Amino acid sequence: MRHHLWRSLLLGCSLLILLPGPGLARQGRSAAGGYYDSVDTSSPATLRASLHAIIDDHQRYPYTSGGTDTWDILEAAQQSPSSSSRILDVYHNEDYPKAGGGNSNYDREHTWPHSFGFPNYNGSNYPYTDCHMLMLCDSVYNSSRGNKPFKSCGGGCDELSTVSNNGQGGSGDSNWRSSAGNLGSFEVWGGRRGDVARALLYADVRYAGGNHGSTGAAEPDLILTDNESLIDASWTGQNESVAYMGMLNVLLQWHEDDPVDAFELQRNEVVYGYQHNRNPFVDHPEWVACLFQGPCCGFTATCPGSANNTGATGEIVLLGSASVAANDLVLAAVSLPTNQFGVFFYGPSEQDTPFGNGRLCVAGQIARLDLVNTGSQGFTAYALDNTAPPQGWAQITPGSAWHFQFWHRDPGGPGGSSHNLTGGVRVDFCQ
Asked: Which domain, by its residues, includes 166?
């Protein structure tokens, strides 16, 4: 009876179908060399622990020195797209000539203010010099931010405008600050608020207390919160074992509002080249929801489909949830050639390779489900049963991720082949 669920869903509740599109963001970027292979997404706790183990114990560079220091790293990381001899600052969005330490235009902004948890630079203070958290910033704007938490600014706030550069910023897109000291507000402009949010989310995971695994240096436990009393209590004038910054819910919203762009990807790559650790939330933005909001499951569009003989592009759509326990996931495919045979299939990895009239989005060993027909309406569906995988190796378990697609006959299709595929979708399964 369960395998007839799709009929009522498609015929009686068709408005619930979600097409892969803006709501299903492209899957996060993967670092080369299997950097994230040991990540466990089965729960927020396992994701936090496994990510911390990967990004912990990075290579530290001096804050300022005669050799390679944070100035060198940040000037490479924030190199302006307009010129290799210029940088783009974080708050003003101004394009400045590279000038190194001591210049009058820009300095180094601790997005997590060092006054909150790690103010004393003793030559072995890891968060103080961590370039995933440091950003080059217009000196006046850096002073204006001060130690204020990141949060939305209400009435009576001062405007700090931005310059139009790199296709964003300018009139109508400003920073805003209140003058209420350390518990005031600093609202980052729209084009960099996500970058700042992901820097602090990184800090929350990277710094969990204890000691550096190689040098033995003490490290604080940095925790994002919405509790302003905890934030205020972290301003002690000395290095602390635990410190707080915020506001968490605002940063989570900024992460959603301002997705990762090419500039932030470049920044992550450059810092990784020096420190040998990455900001996982730049590579995998979808992990933010799992770790900070839960549960750790969901759907993500992967490679796109191609037009079939109807002139439309076939889409794979999902109904139900990615919960293994609920066992209610229904795979559907729409905008297909009529009265043609096809099959849903899945595998452990992603690719984007021309195949037939379309593109093959699934890689690795392939598990094929039962043959279906698209019928007179050009759609079909299949209720996935987590308790009965088509092959034993294809068992779906909490914390596993699988890539799904639909193959179908496409006689007379525009690509000259007799078969085609929908786009692909990744499903991260949870309990």
From this structure: 44-292
